Write a sequence for this structure.
């Protein structure tokens, strides 16, 4: 079974998230991406991943490779924005001895290293126009030349590409070749930002907290108020920012429970404390918070009860008192 739900929490009976090739989600948007990857498991089509920085495009690329006919081959990644233009060509295609100053021996490029597997070109919009022509040739003819050599070599690597840039706008601005754009987007996948799939925040946070705890050699759990603080924040840096926030929280918390006050300041500032606040909370504001939590979790009452740290019976009573029977 490729898609599988997480184990159900026996204390809450909550609706479990779906785990898929290192990814976890509860939102319909991400579940659709999981299903698409599963449907592509027999395909070697080129895929273009788009989405904001930190949404997990690299993880989706790895899932595409893991569920493809090339799963037993190498997965090779190149960040096109991390290298100077003059070095990127050599990094991708390799070079021969004497091709340029400092080329003291032959060196294989990433296309050769990805033979029989997948080459993931991250930040593809940063690739210079001159190099885009050579990439287009690989996509069309499956051939390339090493720097400093005229011998034609053949590529047997599947290409996945990703960008946080609007490539259509880049085409109109003359920064990206239109023919390359259409060659890359045979299968387009847009990874939504975390703020548009808020029901994923809690399961993602729990998985990431486990990973961070393992790295730091600690077993840490969330307090209900910490979960509420995470849900209150807009996450402009998406999943990457969430993991960094938890890394910070685990580093500074003193016990085995991570509280809201252990999170970075920008998250604390966005959070309105609930019952722990010394300020009186009106019934209307409490009802509004409950409504927002229910909506964020798509009215899964058992999940909301777990987030709030209360029983399902208590949640049902609070919903009835607030006139919230479901949507």
């Amino acid at each position: 079974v490729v898609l599988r739900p997480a184990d159900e929490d026996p204390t809450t009976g909550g609706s479990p998230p779906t785990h898929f090739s290192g990814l976890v989600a509860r939102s319909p948007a991400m579940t659709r991406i999981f299903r698409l990857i599963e449907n592509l498991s027999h395909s070697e089509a080129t895929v273009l991943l788009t989405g904001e920085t930190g949404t997990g495009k690299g993880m989706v690329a790895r899932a595409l490779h893991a569920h493809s006919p090339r799963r037993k081959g190498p997965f090779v990644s190149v960040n096109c924005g991390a290298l100077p233009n003059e070095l990127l060509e050599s990094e991708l295609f390799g070079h021969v001895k004497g091709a340029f100053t400092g080329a003291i021996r032959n060196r294989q490029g990433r296309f050769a290293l990805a033979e029989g597997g997948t080459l993931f070109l991250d930040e593809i919009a940063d690739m210079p126009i001159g190099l885009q022509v050579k990439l287009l040739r690989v996509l069309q003819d499956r051939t390339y030349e090493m720097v400093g050599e005229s011998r034609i070599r053949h590529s047997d690597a599947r290409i996945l590409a990703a960008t946080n840039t609007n490539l259509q706008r880049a085409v109109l601005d003359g920064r990206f070749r239109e023919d390359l754009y259409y060659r890359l987007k045979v299968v387009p996948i847009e990874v939504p930002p975390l703020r548009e799939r808020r029901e994923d925040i809690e399961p993602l946070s729990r998985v990431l907290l486990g990973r961070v705890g393992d790295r730091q050699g600690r077993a840490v759990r969330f307090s209900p108020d910490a979960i509420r603080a995470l849900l209150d924040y807009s996450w402009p840096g998406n999943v990457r920012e969430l993991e960094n926030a938890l890394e910070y929280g685990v580093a500074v918390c003193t016990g085995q429970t991570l509280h809201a006050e252990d999170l970075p300041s920008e998250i604390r500032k966005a959070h309105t404390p609930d019952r722990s606040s010394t300020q009186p909370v009106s019934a209307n504001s409490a009802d509004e918070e409950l409504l927002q939590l229910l909506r964020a979790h798509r009215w899964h009452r058992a999940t909301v009860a777990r987030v709030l740290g209360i029983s399902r019976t208590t949640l049902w009573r609070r919903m009835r008192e607030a006139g919230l029977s479901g949507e």
